[in-house]
Design goal:
This protein is of the alpha/beta class. It is built from 18 helices and 15 strands.
């Protein structure tokens, strides 16, 4: 096998040891297949067949695992698809930072510096906080803050704010891992100021409010507002920590979206420390941001765990390029993809859907009925959980219901995979996140489906 021309060429290009291992794997797989089928009935067609298997394995292994996809699911900040798409400014900044950079060095003095300085000035300007630091995500921001300020002490928290987000992030578990003791106050639907006052004892480290960004309690309810909770904290000389989860730096109402509390509002309402995500409504890379009083942020940064959670140079470069886009709040939606997609008007999306419908119907060759239907997009990543966004989708309904999942698989098999969602017996392609028609139309020639080609569809995905 190693003397086969294509294998010998592959060994010269990729290394003899690597290719030899693949040859052994392919021979073993061929042997197992022959044994399973009954070796006497099917003999190998020769070493050419195994050589081709080796070439295919090399191609598969060297292909990037992370691939661009078209997000037509209707969830803009889709956690499984990488959340916020980054603007060109961030991509250029990450490219510049790929080599040696002044990450932790002061060029004026030559002394060691602080990596947070690359984003702290803009975070202070945009939030009104005294200081800031960045870690790898908001879960880390909450964990680090509590471990730094409440280790081996108690933290009262409303039962209505004991959140759980995707990936089994549960506030009680995070508090336990942070080394502090949760003291539940109030009830699920109603918490009053006296509940916090009654819970404060000598071992109380701080008061905390968690914004329930991925659910909403309605009906007979009561909650203590951040401003009032800050006053209670001052009365007892305690820090007040406000976890915003999916934090935003601008008022979303300016773009026709429901209001979400901004970081600047949280600071003005008296929070001593605010934690929030960088890759959700902020529209940046995955990171967690901690802003607040300088003395408390300094304590957090001195925690040895900070080094295990700090952001890398590419994240800081991307965040540092995005924050200045907020200098003009009226134009930020034009520059930031996440906000621009969230703010798209239903009328524009519907016009796009009507424009694409006949072209997609032609590509499907009658194998599926294509129509334009109204739908509701969602923000995603736990932000604005009950406020859907009016949108429009292309509804793809195959002739046979059993072909629905295979139809979805055919779209996932395109050169740039297209991901929609299955609902009401159809594959829905919500066009809210389709910036360029050509991104979809330009690859429809690769769609292996037609009136007589259902057998060529990929097998359905099994859960």
């Amino acid at each position: 096998m190693l003397q086969h021309p294509s294998v010998r060429e592959a060994a010269a290009a990729h290394g003899r040891g690597f290719v030899t291992t693949l040859v052994k794997e392919c021979i073993a797989q061929t042997r197992e297949a022959l044994q399973a089928e009954g070796g006497a009935e099917r003999m190998p067609s020769g070493i050419d067949e195994i050589a081709q298997q080796v070439a295919t394995r090399i191609e598969d292994l060297l292909a990037p695992s992370i691939r661009p996809v078209l997000n037509l699911t209707g969830t803009v900040l889709h956690t499984n698809l990488g959340r916020a798409p980054l603007p060109p400014e961030a991509l250029r900044a990450m490219e510049r930072a790929a080599g040696a950079v002044n990450l932790e060095i002061e060029l004026e003095t030559g002394r060691r510096g602080d990596r947070d300085t690359h984003v702290e000035e803009w975070l202070r300007r945009l939030t009104g906080a005294e200081a800031a630091t960045v870690v790898n995500n908001n879960a880390a921001a909450v964990l680090l803050t509590l471990n730094s300020l409440a280790l081996r002490k108690e933290v009262p928290l409303s039962r209505g704010e004991l959140v759980e987000i995707g990936g089994a992030f549960r506030m009680p578990d995070i508090m336990a891992r942070a080394g502090c003791r949760l003291v539940e106050v109030g009830t699920t639907n109603r918490t009053h100021p006296r509940d916090y006052r009654d819970a404060i004892r000598s071992r109380t480290a701080l008061l905390m409010k968690v914004h329930p960004s991925n659910y909403e309690i309605r009906g007979f309810r009561a909650a203590v507002e951040a401003r009032e909770l800050a006053e209670i904290s001052r009365e007892h000389d305690l820090p007040f920590v406000h976890d915003l989860g999916s934090g935003t730096l601008c008022d979303l109402r300016a773009f026709g979206l429901p209001h979400e509390p901004t970081v600047a509002e949280a600071v003005r309402d008296g929070a001593d420390v605010v934690t929030f995500s960088g890759d959700k409504l902020l529209g940046g890379p995955q990171c967690g941001v901690i802003v607040g009083r300088a003395a408390l942020v300094a304590r957090i940064k001195r925690n040895p765990m900070k080094r295990a959670m700090r952001a890398d140079k590419l994240t800081l470069a991307a965040l540092g390029a995005i924050l200045p886009l907020y200098r003009d709040p009226k134009r930020v939606a034009e520059r930031l993809p996440a906000l621009r997609l969230l703010a798209r008007r239903r009328e524009d999306i519907e016009a796009q859907a009507r424009r694409l419908r006949p072209l997609l119907a032609g590509a499907l060759a009658g194998a599926a009925e294509v129509s334009v239907v109204p739908c509701r997009s969602q923000v995603g990543s736990g932000a604005l959980p009950v406020q859907g966004l009016e949108s429009a989708a292309l509804s793809l309904r195959p002739e046979r219901s059993r072909d629905l999942r295979r139809l979805a698989g055919a779209f996932r098999a395109l050169p740039r995979p297209v991901l929609g969602r299955i609902a009401d017996g159809a594959l829905l392609l919500d066009l809210r996140c389709l910036d360029d028609d050509h991104d979809l139309l330009g690859q429809l020639d690769h769609l292996e489906i037609g009136r007589s080609a259902s057998r060529r569809l990929p097998p359905p995905v099994r859960s």
